[in-house]
Amino acid sequence: MTSMIRKSVLGVAGLAFAGGVFAGPIAAHADTGPVTGKPVAVQADKPDSGKLIPHGVQGKQSHISLNDEQTGNAKAIIAATKKAGLPERAAVISIATSLQESKLENLGHLGDRNDHDSLGLFQQRPSSGWGTPEQITDPEYSTTAFLKGLKQVDGWQDMPLTEAAQTVQVSAYPDAYAQWEKQAAHIVAQHWNS
């Protein structure tokens, strides 16, 4: 997708970014609010839904249709999670975080709509120590960096998703991650064993 088309699509989607991430980086993100649309009933039965959504979901859930690029990025997050030796729940947290930060798009610099130098699936910032722009826009690298931050959070496995994600990301809108939990669990259930 060309840069101009990508900017147009993102503009229509109403994405606005205002920061980076933590575990090194600290950020403040613009709240894009819940994505409107029909809530999707999800039966996350493979792997065990108790592992995917152990606390149930918090608040209204959002859902977007994924294109091939977004699905590929979700699969890359799952592969990096497996490679790191972490369970399905870590993949759910990672995918929900990426859904909030970039809608699973591996974003480059967005010009005036990009605050600071946030890039990639997780809107990580080179200036905050997450890596080079080339590293941050590599899905495996950026996921591994996010997971490294997650592993540093004591008790992340037992936290509600939005608390775990917020502890790593340090967003100005800490509850925004919760809206993506069902879709993230559905994605992990669908692709964990594929």
UniProtKB/TrEMBL annotation:
<protein>
    <recommendedName>
        <fullName>Secreted protein</fullName>
    </recommendedName>
</protein>
<dbReference type="InterPro" id="IPR006311">
    <property type="entry name" value="TAT_signal"/>
</dbReference>
<keyword id="KW-0732">Signal</keyword>
<feature type="signal peptide">
    <location>
        <begin position="1"/>
        <end position="23"/>
    </location>
</feature>
